[in-house]
Each structure stands twice: as C-alpha cells, then as structure tokens.
Amino acid sequence: MTESINNSNTDQKKGRPFPWKCPECGKKEVQPTVISHTSKIRHKGRLITVVVPQLRVPRCQACGELMFDNDADEQIEKAFHELVYPGKSNAASSSAT
C-alpha cells in the first residue's frame, strides 16, 4: 500500500521542490509518498505500537530510503496521542507526558 503523491503542501512546508537528492544512494529521486507505517514508542515503561495507515513521508524511488521529516514526526506523534489519550487534544495531552 505505497503510492507516490504530488502534494504541493509538502513541497511548500519544506521550502524546496521535489525531487530531492537521496543521502543514502545519492540519486535525485526522493519524492513524497504515502505508506502504512508502524512505530514502537516507549511510554511510562510500556512499549506502545502506533500504526499510521497513511503516513506522508519523502522516499527515494531508487533505493527506498525514507526521510522522516518534521511532518512525518508530527503525524506519528498525533497518532500516538490519539491512542494514549483518546478524546484529548494534542496540546492538552502533550503536557501530560
């Protein structure tokens, strides 16, 4: 369940247009992509599994390297807070961690 996207919002947030040069393989083939992603985050001594079914993240089309930028981190953090603190806003739950 991976697809490349053309998302001008992602381009504008980064301040530079795609494609980017990949730090892993050196090819200029990094494009915004949507993938399903699972993270494990330790919280209060427990390991929490966080699934983001449609994570927007830059990925190299040549080697597959993922570039976890601030936007991707925010999406994962939001999914974590929704899982751990259901029904609370992200701002309110941030102070509770």
Tell me about this structure.
Strands 1-2-3 form a three-stranded antiparallel beta sheet, with helices on one face. It is elongated and about 40 Å long. The model is unreliable at 6-12 and 92-97 (pLDDT under 50). The protein is α+β, with helices and mostly antiparallel strands and 97 residues long. The protein contains three helices and three strands, in the order βαββαα. It has one domain (3-94). The N and C termini lie far apart (32 Å).
Instruction: Indicate the mean pLDDT.
Output: 85
Strand content: 25-35%
Query: How many domains make up the 3D coordinates?
Result: 1
| Number of beta strands | 3
Radius of gyration, rounded? 15 Å
* Silhouette: elongated
User: How would you write the strand order of the largest sheet?
Assistant: 1-2-3
Instruction: State the end-to-end CA separation.
Output: 32 Å
Q: What's the total helix number?
A: 3
H/E order of the elements?
A: EHEEHH
Structural class: alpha+beta
- Low-confidence residue ranges: 6-12, 92-97
Helix content: 25-40%
Strand count, sense and barrel status of the largest sheet are:
3 strands, antiparallel
Throw out a few tags for this protein.
97 residues, alpha+beta, three-stranded antiparallel sheet, 3 strands, elongated
